What we know:
single chain, mainly alpha, two-stranded parallel sheet, 5 helices, elongated
Amino acid sequence: xxxxxxxxxxxxxxxxxxxxxxxxxxxxxxxxxxxxxxxxxxxxxxxxxxxxxxxxxxxxxxxxxxxxxxxxxxxxxxxxxxxxxxxxxxxxxxxxxxxxxxxxxxxxxxxxxxxxxxxxxxxxxxxxxxxxxxxxxxxxxxxxxxxxxxxxxxxxxxxxxxxxxx
Length: 166
């Protein structure tokens, strides 16, 4: 009987300690998407990417226009030139098509790489700010609010923006 009493007291103590530990775990949330979208450095980065994309689009359009003009010219002249010349022209047109496709693919890869190079340090800066503010306010967990289904805890988004200077 004495052992049961001891086990019961130990169980109550463990249960109570567990409740105390759970009550002390402080959780907050932050909307990283909103911060990144309104971050001045990110807005500047988006402008740079748009300019680069515009340059690639312009070059791509010139290449396509040149291709279409050459194709139209060759089709119009195909009946009046020899088969050897038509064969050479066909190969030239195929080479132009390949260059256009390669240019488009490389431009997309370069834009993605440039975006990654720009966004990564900004994301690290936001993450560091979240850790700084979260620790300063005594939170043990800070969750990204863009993926939360229920967010009853404090929202640190405004505090993070203030810490980042905007």
